[in-house]
Automatic annotation (TrEMBL):
The keyword Methyltransferase applies. This is tRNA (guanine(46)-N(7))-methyltransferase. Keywords: Methyltransferase, S-adenosyl-L-methionine, Transferase, tRNA processing. The keyword Oxidoreductase does not apply. Pfam families: Methyltransf_4. It comes from Pseudoalteromonas lipolytica.
């Protein structure tokens, strides 16, 4: 069974990155001025029309991959509009047709760069009730700290979006670093093991089948 062969995270980092605080504090105090890409602006504008016309809660499923989690979250939150965002058209194109017609819940999948999409959502005053970051790429090499969401210049906008943020990873250091970054932004939370009988993403299924644990944080921002 190939699902049981998921490789464990290998990192040259034994704990929190030594420059984590310095980099996060720099991003929290700086202005992110990178221009918005045209394709993300166009994608956002389309979704924003639906968001503004929708009367119920808005839920974000960032780094949604093939969109399986987005469909499952829509079933869990039938009164909400769930928006799954991923930069890869290759992943989104794998979205199974069965997920496009759900008996409960509504959702949209959008291809966009989250570095731009999150900033546009903040500027448009979106107020998601929930924001899920399920198994983002952990970038485990120490030199890649600033490719992790909490080490990136976009991090303050994740905080500004608010809502009930839930992050999961199979690498505990990633979640602990994210928690420390949130603490630096004035929001303390705990990191815990996450277990469930039902996997809602392909990664979750793969990790659990190979004996890896999930770590998560949940915080109301």
């Amino acid at each position: 069974m190939t699902d049981a062969n998921s490789r464990s995270i290998v990192s040259n980092q034994p704990g929190l990155h030594e420059k984590l605080d310095e980099i996060v504090l720099k991003h929290l105090s700086a202005e992110f001025k990178k221009p918005i890409a045209e394709h993300t602006q166009a994608a956002f504008d389309q979704v924003n029309e639906k968001v503004q016309a929708f009367a119920g809660p808005i839920i974000l499923d960032s780094c949604c991959g093939v969109g399986e989690s987005t469909a499952n979250l829509a079933k869990r939150h039938p009164d909400a509009l769930v928006i799954g965002i991923d930069k890869s058209s290759h992943r989104l194109d794998k979205h199974d047709i069965e997920y496009k017609q759900t008996d409960a819940g509504q959702y949209i999948l959008v291809q966009a760069d989250l570095n731009d999409f999150w900033r546009l959502a903040v500027a448009a005053n979106w107020q998601p009730s929930h924001h899920y970051l399920l198994y983002p790429n952990p970038w485990p090499k120490a030199k890649h700290l600033q490719r992790r969401w909490h080490g990136a210049a976009i991090f303050p906008f994740i905080v500004k979006l608010g809502g009930r943020l839930e992050l999961r990873s199979n690498w505990d250091i990633y979640v602990k670093e994210f928690a420390r970054s949130l603490e630096l932004a004035g929001h303390e939370c705990d990191v815990e093991l996450y277990e469930s009988d039902i996997a809602i993403t392909p990664f979750e299924r793969k990790y659990w089948a190979s004996g890896q644990q999930s770590h998560r944080l949940v915080i109301n921002l």
